[in-house]
């Protein structure tokens, strides 16, 4: 009878431990970081990053200014693909 009580007590203790471990292992659900978070965490002093941003701005301006000249846009598209 005593061994049955010890077995039941140890079983309850192990069940509680398993539940606690399962809860501790679950990660809270978080969405991806927002644009403002990414912009705030980015080191904007990196020269290659500034060059990359400048390159994209120039490509965007070329696309906007050449919207009536389809041959320029075709050339621009082909140069971007290489």
UniProtKB/TrEMBL annotation:
<feature type="transmembrane region" description="Helical">
    <location>
        <begin position="48"/>
        <end position="67"/>
    </location>
</feature>
<keyword id="KW-0812">Transmembrane</keyword>
<keyword id="KW-0472">Membrane</keyword>
<keyword id="KW-1133">Transmembrane helix</keyword>
<dbReference type="Pfam" id="PF14770">
    <property type="entry name" value="TMEM18"/>
</dbReference>
<protein>
    <submittedName>
        <fullName>Uncharacterized protein</fullName>
    </submittedName>
</protein>
<dbReference type="InterPro" id="IPR026721">
    <property type="entry name" value="TMEM18"/>
</dbReference>
């Amino acid at each position: 009878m005593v061994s049955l009580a010890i077995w039941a007590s140890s079983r309850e203790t192990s069940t509680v431990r398993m539940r606690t471990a399962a809860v501790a292992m679950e990660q809270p659900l978080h969405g991806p970081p927002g644009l403002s978070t990414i912009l705030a965490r980015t080191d904007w002093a990196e020269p290659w990053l500034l060059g990359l941003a400048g390159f994209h701005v120039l490509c965007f301006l070329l696309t906007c200014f050449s919207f009536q000249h389809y041959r320029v846009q075709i050339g621009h598209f082909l140069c971007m693909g290489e």
